[in-house]
Design goal:
Blueprint lengths: L2 H4 E3 H6 L1 H11 L3 E5 L2 E6 L2 H26 L5 H18 L1
């Protein structure tokens, strides 16, 4: 983070929004918006936001997986594939 570039007052956002959007899309760094000297919001470009959300979702999946492993709530790969094959065969037979 470059403090002078990445912290802006709300007046800057109001008067130079196009410049701020260009900065966000060029640097891919979030910008902190202040009001009366206090940080009030963080804005970032859409691509960085999407990557952040995807990373958080992956971390949630990993956390759930680790919990399942610790609790012994897992099955062997061969058993899983067998379950999937059985379900697919049942669907095929119904048609």
């Amino acid at each position: 983070m470059k403090i002078k570039e990445d912290i802006k007052p709300i007046s800057y956002l109001k008067s130079r929004s196009a410049e701020l959007l260009a900065q966000l899309n060029e640097t891919h760094r979030p910008v902190i918006i202040t009001q009366n000297g206090e940080p009030k919001a963080v804005i970032q470009d859409a691509e960085s936001y999407e990557k952040m959300v995807n990373s958080l979702n992956l971390m949630k999946i990993l956390a759930h997986s680790e919990k399942d492993i610790k609790e012994g709530s897992t099955i062997k790969q061969e058993a899983l594939f067998k379950q999937i094959e059985d379900k697919l065969l049942k669907k095929k037979i119904r048609k």
